[in-house]
Design a protein that fits this description.
The chain is an alpha/beta fold and 319 residues long. It is 39% helix and 10% strand. The chain is built from 12 helices and 7 strands. The strands form 2 sheets. Strands 3, 4, 5, 6 and 7 form a 5-stranded mixed sheet that branches. A two-stranded parallel sheet has the order 1-2. Helix 1 packs antiparallel against helix 2 and helix 9 crosses helix 10.
């Protein structure tokens, strides 16, 4: 019997408050257990014990992870703009042949292996700028999730849009983490990738409404509440199709399958998305509504994950 059916059963068959509380706690624990599990991309392999040896403080972990990576835009802009103070390191020391390594290092194990190959100290604040990995927010979130899961902290990756950058006029695609704080009994959203920037709030406890989750963006545009051009993909693509990419990234992330940027369901691929019927768009609307409250709708999301090939199977690159 599913979690939701069990609750309905007990609501129809009154029990005492202690029993109801136990049921709700069991529901929550099943969800948290899901986010303690590794997926294909977050599985650390032989690096699990190494992760356990890292500091337990989440900010310290985040700082170690962030210092090990250079974002592609930082490499592109060099020692200007957000890196004029060299907080990410001196980009002139990075070899001129170095380019974005997202496609080469999609998994936690691959990222760690390459970090150790370049510097045997692994995740260290002593890492030279020329020995850092050139990766984007998705990869940082995968790495962060893997470390926290290894320490017994339920963690998930979320895909959406961020408009809180000081230079931003629109909301651009971005990935963040959520971890479960057992003391506060809530999910806390963190943006480790952006944590070196001053955005006016704590990046290790993002206030509600600051990050544009993809489900909210999709439904707000579909309902005419926001102009779709407010949301942009990194390649400059605006609008509903770009939001659709993030929506399905988010769905897969919530199922512990943090896919790479090149992979999408066929229905949101260019040349297909533009021809979707209103009924097909409404089907995506229904998924978005569930994604707005992933814990409350966990059973339904898992059912879609297990049964809907259209939303599960991906296209792109060699797929």
């Amino acid at each position: 019997m599913s979690i939701r059916k069990r609750v309905i059963h007990f609501l129809k068959n009154p029990v005492d408050n202690k029993c109801i509380k136990a049921i709700l706690n069991n529901m929550q624990q099943e969800i948290l257990d899901h986010y303690l599990k590794y997926g294909m991309f977050t599985y650390p392999g032989l690096y699990e014990e190494y992760f356990k040896s890292l500091p337990d403080d989440i900010r310290k972990i985040g700082h170690l992870v962030r210092w090990s990576l250079i974002h592609r835009t930082t490499l592109e802009w060099g020692n200007t703009s957000t890196n004029s103070d060299l907080k990410f390191g001196d980009m002139t020391k990075v070899p001129k042949y170095r380019q974005v390594e997202d496609d080469n290092l999609p998994t936690t194990a691959a990222m760690l292996a390459e970090l150790f190959r370049r510097d045997e100290k692994g995740l260290t604040l002593e890492r030279k700028v020329e020995d850092k990995l050139i990766l984007t927010c998705r990869h940082l979130c995968v790495l962060m999730a893997s470390v926290l899961k290894s320490k017994g902290i339920p963690t998930r990756v979320r895909s959406g849009f961020a408009g809180y950058w000081p230079w931003a006029k629109k909301s651009s695609d971005h990935w963040v983490n959520q971890y479960w704080d057992r003391k506060e009994n809530r999910w806390i959203a963190i943006d480790v990738d952006g944590s070196f920037h001053n955005v006016g709030f704590d990046m290790y406890d993002i206030p509600e409404g600051k990050f544009d989750y993809s489900a909210d963006a999709w439904l707000n545009v579909r309902q005419g509440k926001i102009d779709g051009n407010h949301f942009l993909n990194a390649d400059g693509t605006p609008g509903l199709m770009a939001i659709g990419w993030e929506l399905f990234y988010d769905f897969h992330c919530l199922m512990n399958n943090e896919v790479i940027y090149l992979h999408h369901p066929k229905i949101v691929m260019p040349g297909v998305f533009e021809k979707l019927s209103e009924n097909e768009l409404r089907k995506i609307d229904e998924l978005a509504k569930l994604l707005q409250n992933p814990d409350e709708n966990f059973d339904k999301l898992q059912k879609i994950w297990k049964t809907d090939k259209e939303f599960r199977l991906l296209k792109g690159a060699l797929l």
